[in-house]
Amino acid sequence: MATDTELFKQARDAASVAYVPYSHFPVGAALVAKNGLVFQGCNIENASFGLTNCAERTAIFKAVSSGVRDFERIGIYGETDTPISPCGACRQVLSEFCSAEMPVYLFSKSGDVKVTTVGELLPYQFKDLS
Ligand code: THU
């Protein structure tokens, strides 16, 4: 899984199974691990809105709960004209498991891409308790 086009497709496919009866706003994420595996995630909403899990966190939690913690990059897809950007909670979770230098690809529905990094999205992140 190397190309940016493939990353876009995997993130877009992930959005196709989003559970979004409240917002009708599907989001998909494709998290590429250093071992080559790709973990897809979608947003999963809840009637108690605050319990919604975003696509990015779904992907991270799937990977970590599968025993994988080393990541190379992530693609995030929104059905929007311009690329969407992860919420604050997802930025914090990404920063727990990914290096500040890890690339983050933000895709719109047409495939427009903005490339940023975990560190750019969340500078001065809270890292640990010590
Ligand atoms: N959402 C994501 O899944 N990821 C983002 O980066 C932004 C927001 C979801 C949460 C909710 O299901 C819907 O998009 C609208 O906020």
Architecture blueprint of SSEs:
Layout: H1 4-15, E1 27-33, E2 38-42, H2 55-65, E3 71-78, H3 88-97, E4 103-107, E5 113-117, H4 118-121
Parallel strand pairs: 3-4
Antiparallel strand pairs: 1-2, 1-3, 4-5
Bound molecules: tetrahydrodeoxyuridine.
Query: Order of strands in the sheet with the most strands?
Result: 2-1-3-4-5
**Element-level helix/strand string:** HEEHEHEEH
Are there runs of 5+ residues with pLDDT below 50, and where? none
Overall average residue pLDDT: 96
Distance between the termini: 37 Å
Largest sheet: 5 strands, mixed
Are any ligands bound, and if so which? tetrahydrodeoxyuridine
How many E-type strands?
A: 5
Written overview of the protein:
There is one protein chain. The protein has 130 residues and is α+β, with helices and mostly antiparallel strands. The chain has four helices and five strands, in the order H-E-E-H-E-H-E-E-H. The chain is globular and about 40 Å long. It has a five-stranded mixed sheet. The mean pLDDT is 96. The longest helix has 12 residues, at 4-15. Helix 3 links the parallel strand 3 (71-78) and strand 4.
Notable traits:
single chain; alpha+beta; 5-stranded mixed β-sheet; binds tetrahydrodeoxyuridine
Task: Give the gist of this structure.
With 130 residues, the protein is of the alpha+beta class. The protein contains 4 helices and 5 strands; from the N terminus they run H-E-E-H-E-H-E-E-H. It is globular.
